[in-house]
Amino acid sequence: MEKLRYALYTGCTARESTPELLKSTLAVAEKLGIELILLDEATCCGASHLQDYDDMLSLVLNARNICYAEKLGLTMVTICNTCQLNTAMTKHRLDTNPALKAKVNEKLAEVGLEYKGTSEVTHFLYAIIQDYGLDNLSQKVNVPLSQFNIAPFYGCHNIRPSELQNISNGGENPYNPTSLDDLIIACGGNNVDYDAKNKCCGFHAELQSPHTAAVLTGNALSGAIDANADWMVTPCPLCHLKLDVQHHSASKAIGREVKLPVLHMPQMVGLALGCTPAELGLQHHVTRVNFV
Amino acid sequence: MDEIKSKQVTFKLFRFNQETDYLPYYNTYVLDITHEEVILDVLNRIKWDHDGSLSYRRSCRHGICGICSIKVNGKAILACKSRLFDLIDIFGTELTIEPLSTKRAIKDLIIDKEDFWDKHAQVKPFIDTEIDEHPSLENLVKPDDADKLLEADYCIQCGACHYSCPALEINDRFIGPAAFAAAFRFAADVRDDSALERLHIVNEEAEGVWDCVKCMECAEACPKDVDPIQKITKLHNMIFQAGIAKNNIATRHAVGFAHSIEKHGLLDEGELVRYSEGNIGVMKHLPEAIAMWKNGKIVMPWNMPKSKNLDEVKKLIKSSSTVKF
Ligand code: SF4
Ligand code: SF4
Ligand code: SF4
Ligand code: SF4
Ligand code: FES
Question: Do A205 and B322 touch (CB under 8 A)?
Answer without folding.
Answer: no
